[in-house]
Amino acid sequence: MTPLIDGLQYANWSEKIFRQMRAGGVDAVHVTITYHETFRETVLNIERWNRWFEQFPDLIFQGFTATDIATARQTGRTAIFFGSQNPSCIEDDIGLVEVLHRLGLRFMQLTYNNQSLLACGCYEAEDSGLTRMGREVVAEMNRVGMVVDMSHSGERSTLEAIAMSSRPIAITHANPASWHPALRNKSDRVLRALAESGGMLGFSLYPHHLKDGSACRLQDFCEMIARTADLMGIEHLGIGSDLCQDQPDSVVEWMRVGRWTKRIDYGEGSASAPGFPPMPEWFENNRDFQLISEGLAKVGMSTDEVALIMGGNWQRFFSVSFDPKTATGLSLDDGRI
Prior knowledge:
38% of the residues lie in helices and 12% in strands.
């Protein structure tokens, strides 16, 4: 059977949520462990996850390779893959890319909305593209087996990352801007380039990324996925829910502001309602993925196509993305060396 995989979550983790994952049959989740944290602060977040792995070994375990997805299915657990939404965790030290990969970091965004040491974010007025350090870090991420994620990046930076990366990149949580013109959503030009390079798009359910926000209908969301499949090809699509379940509104301030400003940045939300928007009624937690599967079937997708979107494509992407490469370009685990 094809696995169920979510390409991005940032929940207020608890036993309740872990049990909802199991109730929803979620086999693997890419979880955010860093927004603006330094290297040491990121390690502290990994320590927190280590305690959860120890406390709930019957529900979750840390994933390192794509084979862990099969282990999750065989043991009735959810594999947790770490990711960062900002390169703050490597500070200004390229050597920390490999260190964090060894600790389990499998995704890293080159920027979170703003200009970083590596690339330009989608909120900047002008996108200068990848920086000198950014080009070096992309090459190092390719070498060690860490996915380049451009979910919060500007257009030029994203196109340059696609062109420069020797491995397919991911946009783990975004939607087409042609469907809903949020700054975070992606143009058809970017989506075509992503598909041509073998990359992956994870469709976001965060209301600010949805047409009609929290009132978005399941049918509209699924029809958008079907249209995107026509644009990109079914094999490049998955779900990246961006679920921030049970987080207090104060966390939004940390996500948007970090330490870079003294003012409150409301981002794409309304200044009168700076907290988390309500999720659509058809997707409130990890037990609701089946509703998306049913919705995709109703808009005309086959069983096989639905399975690819709900996890099959992410599984294939993980299998070519997480293993380090030797100087010969062969995987350390491919059996030929």
